[in-house]
Design brief:
This protein is α/β, with parallel strands linked by helices. It is 24% helix and 26% strand. The protein has a single domain, classed as Alpha-Beta Complex (YbaK protein), CATH 3.90.960. The chain is built from four helices and seven strands.
């Protein structure tokens, strides 16, 4: 979990990177955001020009990409994935990303993530986290 990772690394939960796989009109997309936020699937669909978006199932993520949920990295995919980086990430100098497992992490700047993923910066977090 985000709290476990933050505790292990002795960093705030906000600096733990969530790497999420969503399906936008059935096609996988990568969403990167702060560990304290929840994703707004409608905002993701809008940002990528789609109609519908939903979280990919853990089984889909494991079968398609080889990663367990909780250890999904932000980089290193054999197929090109559209990537969205939530605007809020850019307030942090460094975030800590999963390196393929929920026990290995690496530090990286949001700016570097934007370059590597060729992502789009967008507001994709839920503005009302209780919704």
């Amino acid at each position: 979990t985000v709290s476990d990772a933050a505790r292990t690394l002795s960093v705030p939960e906000a600096e733990i990177l969530k790497s999420l796989i969503l399906l936008v009109d059935g096609a996988p997309a990568l969403v990167l955001m702060s560990g304290i936020n929840k994703v707004d699937s409608r905002a993701v669909a809008r940002a990528l020009g789609g109609r519908r978006s939903k979280m990919a199932s853990p089984d889909f993520v494991l079968e398609r990409f080889g990663f367990q949920v909780g250890g999904v990295p932000p980089v290193g995919y054999s197929e090109s994935l559209p990537a969205l980086l939530d605007d809020e990430l850019f307030q942090y100098e460094t975030v800590w990303a999963a390196a393929g497992t929920d026990r290995a992490f690496f530090p990286i700047s949001p700016g570097r993530l934007l370059e590597i993923t060729r992502g789009i910066r967008s507001e994709v977090k839920k503005l009302d986290p209780t919704a």
